[in-house]
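Page 42, continued from yesterday. The earlier attempt failed because a stray header line got pasted into the input along with the sequence. Redoing it now with the clean sequence only.
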Amino acid sequence: MSNLKKKPDFKTEAEERAFWESHDSTDYLDWSHAQRASFPNLKPSTGTRRSAPPVTA
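This time it went through. Structure tokens are written below.
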């Protein structure tokens, strides 16, 4: 693809997340050149993580 749009510069991760939620990545990236990633030394998490604050009574 030669007519790809330029990816904007983001000030925050939240701004980038909101952008990709409403835009198609194929307009900005040529996925035909993508390569599979391998992370052989990645270790599993040792605990659970909560994404919500704890509930208080």
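Notes: The chain has a mean pLDDT of 86.
Reminder to self: strip header lines before submitting.
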